Amino acid sequence: MSDTTSAKNHLSRRTLLKTVGAVGAAASIGAIVGRGQYAIAGNLDKVKLEWTEVAACHSPIGFGLSKGIYTKHGLDVELFYQGASGQTLIQSLATHKAEAGPGLLYDWLKPIEQGFDVKLFHGSHGGCQRLLVKKDSGIKTIADLRGKTIGTFDVGSPSRVAFSVALAKAGIDPEHDVTWKVFPFDLVAEGVERGEADAVAHMDPWAYSYEKQHDFLKIYDTQTGIFQDRVCCVLGVNGNYYESNKDIIRRVAAANLEIHQYTSEHPDEVAKWYFDTLKPGLPLEDLTEVLASLTYHKNWFGKELVAEVREGYANLKLTGVIDESTDPDEIANRVTLDIFA
Q1: Is the domain of 208 the same as that of 239?
Q2: Is residue 150 part of a domain?
Q3: How far apart are CA 139 and CA 88, in angstroms?
Q4: Are residues 115 and 31 in the same domain?
Q5: How many CB atoms lie within 10 A of CB 318?
Q6: In the sheet where 45-51 sits, what is the strand order?
Q7: Is residue 122 located within the same domain as residue 7?
Q8: Torsion of CA 274, 238, 157, 203, to 10 degrees
Q9: How far apart are CA 208 and CA 203, in angstroms?
């Protein structure tokens, strides 16, 4: 039986978890053919995956393609760069510029509540957002941010959404007890240095770089406090596409599980690919340390993912993003796939 044929067989989760981690030899793949666009040749099943090319936590997707891991699972993957906004993530799937891909859990939830037909099937890691202050600011915990100004890079940035939940759970109204101020993407730290904001809410690898370069104090991130042991990014698939291509998405999940396990064991190798290929403008050392810090060894499927989606809906209800009438348990069970069942 060929590797491709074997990859197309339905895999039980138990079998997959026993065998994942060993990345075998695979056919060579084509070079980059344009910004965020990759292609491979061969008699494989085609699928378009969206990604945020600039985000450190998404770099394993591009690395996995270059490594031949998708090919090993019988997939001809094209990556579509959907930008840094959660709204463009949704648009790329809705307009079939891509069929599936990773996004922050909180970016998926409101569009799904509003009727966007997407199914969530793989929670890939935790981490990738940081909340930073100057060490001499007197701010030691998130509770100290009451009455303060928090700088971020977009009015609806993932960092603002995540830390609004943390603020709400600390008894601080994220819309009225703090002020959010938008700065250019790469100048948020300078806003704090100039005294125009008291804190930085940003995503890795830039947040990590700010922490080092400006000697900032990290008072919260999406691996601690209410986010400890929680998922950050989740893969979703267009619902109509999934109904006609269930086996392809099952193999996407298997490939991504393998890719993220490999990243947890070889963050330096993935960081080197990220540094050389995507050129994010940050030191290789920083990229390596960021990837090593993310919980790629932890993945969420089935009931575990349902629990994360349920928690996400409950959290966003606290901030008013999700309607009070929405039942977190009902919607989580309805939109989450048990992909390896």
Answers
A1: no
A2: yes
A3: 34
A4: yes
A5: 14
A6: 75-81, 45-51, 100-104, 233-238, 118-125
A7: yes
A8: -30
A9: 8
DSSP code of residue 36: T
* Token output for 226: 């209410």
Q: pLDDT, tens digit, for every residue of 184-241?
A: 988 999 999 999 999 999 999 999 999 999 999 999 999 999 999 999 999 999 999 9
Compute CA 173 distance to the chain's CA centroid, rounded to the nearest angstrom. 26
- Helix, strand, or coil here: 155? coil
Out of 221, 249, 269, a domain closes at 221
At 76, give phi and psi (nearest 5°). Answer: -105, 100
Domain that holds residue 52: 3-127+230-335
State pTM to two decimals.
Answer: 0.85
Angle at 339 between CA 335 and CA 341, to 5 degrees: 115
Q: What count of Cα atoms within 13 Å lies in the side-chain half-sphere of residue 288? A: 9
The partner residues of 38 in beta bridges, in order of sequence, read 32
Listed range (70-79, 141-150, 162-171, 274-283) with the worst mean pLDDT: 274-283
Residue pair 120/337 in contact (Cβ under 8 Å)? The answer is yes
CA proximity to 300, closest of 89, 105, 49, 50: 105
253 falls within a domain: yes
Instruction: Quickly list DSSP for 209-259.
Output: HHHHHTTPEEEEETTSGGGTT---EEEEEEHHHHHH-HHHHHHHHHHHHHH
